[in-house]
Amino acid sequence: MVSAKNDSWDKVFPKSDKVEVKKVNFKNRFGIVLCADMYLPKGIKDNDKLPAIAVSGPFGAVKEQASGMYAQTLAQRGFITLAFDPSYTGESSGEPRHVASADINTEDFSAAVDFLSNYKNVNPDKIGILGICGFGGFALNAAQIDTRIKATVTSTMYDMTRVSAKGYNDTIDKKARYDMKVALNNQRTKDFTQNTYAKADGLPQKLDGSEPQFVKDYWNYYKTKRGFHKNSINSNGNWNSTSALSLINQPILCYADEIESAVLIIHGENAHSRYFSEDVFKKLKGENKELFIVKDANHTDLYDNLEKIPLDKIEEFYKNNLK
Q1: pLDDT score for 3
Q2: Which of 54, 168, 271, 306 has its CA 20 to 30 A from that of 25?
Q3: Residue 29 neighbours by CB under 8 Å, 6+ apart
Q4: 255-275, pLDDT tens digit by residue?
Q5: What is the pLDDT of residue 79?
Q6: How crowded is the C-beta side of 42, counted as CA atoms within 13 Å?
Q7: Are the C-beta atoms of 256 and 284 separated by less than 8 Å?
Q8: Could you read off the pLDDT of 66-105 as tens digits, one per residue?
């Protein structure tokens, strides 16, 4: 469903006068209503059929943050774009709130493709997706199953199932993982008894200087004027703790070697998460796959740093593969 254009600006990035923004919503196959901002290049004619890109992420973020900035910037370059809130987060529906699911969040991308495929100004044979951080992993997971997706970009990608089950750099062993499962399942019992949902640990409200650099980088995006948004879990709230059970019980990207469509994987040279992109790239087959490392960039630089995000390369990639 398409609603009226969005006249109130609620994003963390400046508004462009080169695009029109509309609030839209659509259902995924689980019946969850996803809320999105659609960015359209100004001057579209009724009979125009343009390539389109669905965008989401980072993990715990909302469409008013990094995904919206990517979407608006690509719309300025001639694409119809759709920045959506994933299920259970932001303005999208789903109860209980703040739940992650490898299956449902992968489906969210395909639901966005459903919507774009039926939008009057979109060429359904020219649809791509772009996932940031944890939704880079889910985007690539969607590209495994959804053959309508003709081009996929991941930016500063996380594999949320791998990091949830094994920790950073795969440091969690089977014993520690079993202890984690015991704690999470005990919490399920408490949640049912108390009719509440416990929250997982999130970013600290203040930094004391002892945190790892990547935590400081996250904090400097989500907890400051740079990227804070009231709807974002990472800015202002925490994940439902037991939703981690879904992530530690299944791997995504098992069939990455079967992706026949084009893939561009982008990561920062200095990002703590770089190994996720490098490892999955090794699984990809075919000449239409590329790993691009951004010099001197950390993980969160690729959220919003327009001097580091390789926008010209992303534009060229989509134009070459959505034609």
Answers
A1: 54
A2: 306
A3: 107, 110, 111
A4: 999 999 999 999 999 999 999
A5: 98
A6: 5
A7: yes
A8: 999 999 999 999 999 999 999 999 999 999 999 999 999 9
Query: In sequence order, which residues have a C-beta less than 8 Å from that of residue 146 and are 6 or more positions away?
Result: 109, 110, 113
pLDDT at 176: 97
pTM: 0.96
Query: Which pLDDT score is estimated for 202?
Result: 93
- Determine the residue type at 105: N
Above 90 in pLDDT, residue 4? Answer: no
Distance CA 167, CA 4 (A): 43
Of 265, 257, 251, the residue nearest 163 (C-alpha): 251
Query: Residue 264 CB: number of other CB atoms within 10 A?
Result: 24
Q: Quick one: angle between helices 102-117 and 134-145, nearest 10?
A: 70
Positive or negative, the CA dihedral 9, 11, 16, 21 is: negative
Please report the domains of the chain, with CATH numbers, ordered by start residue: 2-159+202-237+252-321 (3.40.50.1820)
User: Distance between the two ends of the chain, CA-based, in angstroms?
Assistant: 26
Q: How large is the angle between the packed helices 66-76 and 311-321, nearest 10 degrees?
A: 60
Between 16 and 6, the higher pLDDT residue:
16
Enter the DSSP assignment of 242. Answer: G
Taking residue 125's Cβ as centre, other Cβ atoms within 10 Å add up to: 12
Give the CB-side neighbour count of residue 284, counting CA atoms within 13 A.
Answer: 24
Type of residue numbered 10: D
CA dist., res. 284 & res. 302, Å (int): 22
Instruction: Quickly count: other Cβ atoms within 10 Å of residue 209's Cβ.
Output: 5
Contact yes or no for 135/86 (Cβ under 8 A): yes
CA pair distance 148, 53, nearest whole angstrom? 12
